[in-house]
Amino acid sequence: MTIPRPHRFDVYIAVSGLLGGLLLVGVGLTTRPAKDPITLFDGPWPILVPLIVMAGCELLRRTAPRAALVISTPVICADVVTQGSLATILMFTDIVYAAVLYGPLAAARRTQWITGLLTVAGTIVPFALWRVPEALLIGVAVGVVAYAPAATGWIVRNHRDAAEAARLRAEQTALLAEMDRTQAVTAERARMARELHDMVANHLSAIAIHSTAALSLDNPNTSREALSVIRENSVEGLAEMRRLIGILRDSSGDTEPVAAPTLDGLGALVDGARTNGLDVTLDAAHGTVPAPVELAAYRIVQESLTNALKHASPGRVTVALARRNGSLTVTVTSPFGGGAGPRAPGSGAGLVGMRERVALVGGDFEAGAEGGADGKMWIVRATLPVAEGDRE
After folding, report:
1. Of 105, 136, 151, 199, whose Cβ has the fewest other Cβ atoms within 10 Å?
2. What residues of the chain score a pLDDT lower than 50?
3. Is residue 55 situated within a structural domain?
4. 21-22-27 Cα angle (round to 5)
5. Last residue of a domain, one of 156, 171, 186
6. Domain residues for 324?
């Protein structure tokens, strides 16, 4: 069994108690006179044995407090039958205090109860036997030497445990705050990524498609039309970027964020898609919906038209919004398959962004190819609840 190394502070206490006790013995200062009736061993030398053992117990006050208390209890009793040393008594009170403060909780509670009972017994029994007021001083002495250090250790232990619990709560609060901050930053980055993609991708896709047409066709009129579309989308894309910068700026900046797009702007959005060469029909019967749902529906239509511009085969694209059973259903249908490949490169972030937007408002989202009377179609469908708890 490995004996734990004493704490440095405990070594200081043990050495100080031993040297102080030796000094008291050297000057002849004891707690009782040589002819006291209870003194069985007169002279300075018997005092040294309890003093040295008690100093050794001080070395264990923190690493083995229960063992120190068990050893020091008979030692203090042995000191009673000598002329006694004040240093031995003081070291015993410190060991009782340390046993309650550093020992196991159950042992600390027992120590406090036992010292309290000894104090009561030391007060009642001598007075009952001798019937003199001076007998009450024995209980006072036991209370000062045993119960008072135990009670003090218990109070300090409670304060220490409360401080430790408060520290742990503060650390947990700080950890939760950091987790919330990290989640907020991640959510904000995802939101800005969706906004950047939705606000700019449509215009950049049109620029890419029409610039390809301008470079591949040797027709001045076609090239002029393509360049006009390119310029229009460049200007609109720049405006959208400025809006995004406005969102990122705080209120002290020189560019204020603009209002979020609404479903009333779907007509302009469809007109822009027609300018870019899509054959689009719009059927919007949505009424009044909450702002988050309105923004999500607008962005879904916007991204679906962008994807149709990049990937759809020639044919009609339909956009339909319908309000029923407490939900707003957004459906965008475009021809699918038969093409030579996408007319502009895509990253797949559009579908991810739409799915995230729908999830944020508690809706359902699906996208994929389906067969129909008009051939194979790519269908984007989102069901967005417009009232709390109303979901299909």
Report:
1. 105
2. 251-257, 388-392
3. yes
4. 100
5. 171
6. 263-392
DSSP states of 68-111: HHHHHHHHHHHHHTBS--HHHHHHHHHHHHHHHHHS-HHHHHHH
Verdict on whether the full-model pTM lies above 0.85: no
Instruction: Of 88, 98, 112, 47, give the one whose Cα is nearest residue 68.
Output: 98
Q: H or E element: which one contains 121? A: helix 105-130
Q: Which amino acid is present at 93?
A: T
Q: Is residue 325 part of a domain?
A: yes
Domain count, the chain: 2
Specify the pLDDT at position 190: 74
Any idea of the CA torsion for 358, 362, 367, 370, to the nearest 10 degrees? -140
The CATH number of the domain where 342 resides is what?
3.30.565.10
CB 303 within 8 A of CB 354: yes
Q: Are 229 and 211 in contact (CB under 8 A)?
A: no
**Strands across the sheet containing 375-385:** 279-285, 316-324, 327-335, 375-385, 364-372
Q: How far apart are CA 60 and CA 238, in angstroms?
A: 77
Residue 249 is assigned to a structural domain of this protein: no
∠ Cα 296 299 305 (to 5°): 140
Q: Would you state the pLDDT for residue 216?
A: 62
